[in-house]
Amino acid sequence: MSNLTYLGHSAFLLEGSNFTALFDPFQVMGKLEQEKMKHLDAIFVTHGHGDHFGDTLEIARAYNATVYTNMELANWLAKNGVASVGLQFGVANFGFGKVRVTSAKHSNSFCLDPTYPSGEACGFVLTLDGKKIYHAGDTALTADMQLLQGENLDIACLPIGGYYTMDASDAVRATRLISPKTVVPMHFNTFAQIKQDPAEFVKMVQSSNLQTEVKVLEVGASLCF
Ligand code: NI
Ligand code: MN
Predict the structure, then answer these.
(1) Residues with beta carbon < 5 A to ion ligand 2?
(2) Which of 48, 74, 102, 169 is the most exposed place for a label (fewest CB within 10 A)?
(3) 155 vs 78, 117, 183, CA distance in Å?
């Protein structure tokens, strides 16, 4: 069994049988028990905006985790003494599983060094213990998402807050294109601009005749899959 814990905004903790990873760890320090952090292997960072890069530097240093992100940000991290893996759009195989880097329709800049060339924003499909999870990062609805339908995803984490990303109704359209077993909303209610009642998203998914189950995770809540 794998376990996905929501840490607020777009931050998640994924625990497989032998591999533990954080995604976009914004304001995560202090939210996790030390015990879980001790087993942390990796941090996946979709882009350099502050609400996604978040506590990456502190966590990577404190817990000796490797950061998986785009080539440019990975190079910056390596120069600053953090173990990192620079990825490109496409597929890369690692000992723990497979990482597909997906396109995200979003800008990028690096919160810690705004003049640094930060590369492109992305999303990730991580295959771990035979389970597939998609973290979309920040993105608008794109036609590329239909390519993910063939992946038979177990979980898709999609932004629903609008303003900077797709809104709830576009996230329903994305869910239709992707067709995951379960969709989990993220990137809502953290700031005034992204205010969104997740219950509205649930209603929309449920009335759309989709095969997908929708799960809203409270901060700190987990989903076993
Ligand atoms: Ni962003
Ligand atoms: Mn964001």
Answers:
(1) 51, 138
(2) 169
(3) 31, 32, 6
**What is the Å distance from ligand 2's center to 127 Cα?**
24
Q: How far is the CA of 88 from the centre of ligand 1 (A)?
A: 18
Ligand nearest to the CA of 9: 2
State pTM to two decimals. 0.98
CA 20 to ligand 2 centroid distance, Å: 23
Predicted confidence pLDDT, tens digits, the chain (225 residues):
899 999 999 999 999 999 999 999 999 988 888 888 889 999 999 999 999 999 999 999 999 999 999 999 999 999 999 999 999 999 999 999 999 999 999 999 999 999 999 999 999 999 999 999 999 999 999 999 999 999 999 999 999 999 999 999 999 999 999 999 999 999 999 999 999 999 999 999 999 999 999 999 999 999 999
Beta strands in the chain (DSSP E): 3-6, 12-15, 20-23, 42-44, 66-70, 84-87, 90-94, 97-103, 122-128, 131-135, 155-159, 182-186, 213-214, 222-224
Distance 220 CA to ligand 1 centre (A): 22
Rg (CA), the chain: 16
Distance in Å, CA 47 to ligand 1 centroid: 7
CA of 194 to the centre of ligand 2 (A): 10
Q: For 39, how many CA atoms within 13 A lie in the half-sphere containing its CB? A: 12
